[in-house]
């Protein structure tokens, strides 16, 4: 058996476009990172107290909340309705590149109130849809909700 150490690639903060260096981040720094990095893992609490993880795409809404689209009946939705604390690990496209952790409180917005937020979510991540009427029908058919997460804390709060 070969033994070795995993090496972490630490991020430099002298460049305002990069994060890390073992410090807490201001919410506006976290928003800026999420605006350019949409892949994340959402962590919620299951009814028995265990952790549930979900890969998600994230964006930032006009009020500075991190937003996620999911289905009304998804485990993450049920978990957040019961216990609204959420943790997100937001990753850059380079898996071993910069990443941040966001902790916050989730709010679930259901249809029909969620529709314009879902449109904004799509636009913010993917740009214009070729047929917005089709998109809106799909959101209704899939019973989509918009999850809005406050940024109560962000980091990494230590390197390595």
CATH architecture assignment name: Roll
Question: Roughly how much helix do the residues carry, as a percent range?
Answer: 25-40%
Order of helices and strands: HEEEEHEEHHEE
CATH topology category name? Pnp Oxidase, Chain A
Distance between the termini: 25 Å
Number of strands: 8
User: What is the name of the CATH superfamily?
Assistant: Electron Transport, Fmn-binding Protein, Chain A
> What is the strand content?
25-35%
Oligomeric category: single chain
Major pleated sheet: 8 strands, antiparallel
Total count of domains:
1
Q: What characteristic shape results from the CA principal axes?
A: globular
**What is the structural class?**
alpha+beta
Q: Which whole number gives the mean pLDDT?
A: 87
Can you tell me the CATH class? Mainly Beta
Any overview of this molecule?
The chain is α+β, with helices and mostly antiparallel strands and 160 residues long. The chain has one domain (27-155): Electron Transport, Fmn-binding Protein, Chain A (Pnp Oxidase, Chain A, Roll), CATH 2.30.110. It has 4 helices and 8 strands. The protein has helices at 27-36, 75-82, 115-126, 132-141, and strands at 39-45, 51-57, 59-60, 66-71, 85-91, 99-109, 144-149, 153-155. Strands 1, 2, 3, 4, 5, 6, 7 and 8 form an 8-stranded antiparallel beta sheet that branches. Strand 3 (59-60) and strand 4 (66-71) form a beta hairpin. The chain starts with 26 loop residues before the first helix and ends in a 5-residue tail after the last strand. The model is unreliable at 1-20 (pLDDT under 50).
């Amino acid at each position: 058996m070969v033994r070795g150490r995993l090496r972490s690639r630490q991020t430099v903060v002298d460049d305002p476009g990069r994060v890390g260096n073992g410090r807490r981040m201001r919410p506006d720094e976290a928003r800026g990172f999420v605006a350019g990095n949409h892949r994340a893992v959402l962590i919620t609490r299951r009814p028995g107290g265990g952790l549930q993880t979900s890969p998600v795409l994230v964006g930032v809404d006009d009020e500075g909340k991190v937003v996620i689209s999911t289905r009304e009946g998804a485990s993450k939705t049920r978990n957040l309705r019961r216990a609204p604390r959420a943790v997100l690990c937001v990753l850059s496209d380079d898996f071993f590149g910069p990443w941040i952790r966001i902790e916050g409180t989730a709010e679930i917005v259901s249809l029909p109130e969620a529709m314009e937020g879902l449109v904004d979510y799509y636009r913010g991540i993917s740009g214009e849809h070729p047929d917005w009427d089709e998109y809106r029908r799909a959101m209704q058919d899939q019973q989509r909700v918009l999850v809005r997460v406050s940024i109560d804390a962000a980091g990494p709060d230590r390197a390595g």
